[in-house]
Amino acid sequence: MGLGASGNDSVVTEFVLLGLTETPALKPILFVIFLFAYIATVGGNFSILAAILTEPKLHTPMYFFLGNLSLLDVGCISVTVPAMLRHFMSNHRSIPYRSCLSQLFFFHLLAGVDCFLLTVMAYDRYLAICQPLTYSARMSWGTQQALAGMSCAFSFTNALTQTVALSTLKFCGPNVINHFYCDLPQLFQLSCSSTQLNEQLLFVAAAFMGVAPLVLIAVSYAHVAAAVLRIRSAEGRKKAFSTCGSHLTVVGIFYGTGVFSYMRLGSVEASDKDKGIGTLNTVISPMLNPVIYSLRNPDVQGALWRVLTGRQPPK
Question: How far apart are CA 225 and CA 102, in angstroms?
Answer without folding.
Answer: 41
